[in-house]
Amino acid sequence: MGAVTGSARETALTIIFRYLIRQIMISMIAVSTILLMVFMSGRFLKYLGNAAEGEISAGVLFSVMAYRFPGFLELILPLGLFIGILLAYGRMYLESEMTVLLACGVSEGDILRQTLIGSLPVMLVVAAMSLYVSPWGMKQVEEIFNEQRKATEFELLAPGRFQDFTSGGRVTYTEGLSDDKRELQGVFIAEFGKNGEGLTIITAETGTQLIDAQTGSRFLILKDGGRYSGNAGQLDYNTTEFEAYGLKIVSGKSGTKELEEGLSTGQLMKSDDPRQRALLHWRFSLPFIVPVVTLLAVRLSRVNPRQGRFFHLLPAMLVYITYLGLLIVARDALADGAVPEWIGMFWVHGLFLALGLWLQFGPAWLRKRRLQSAELAGPTHA
Question: What is the pTM of this model?
Answer without folding.
Answer: 0.74
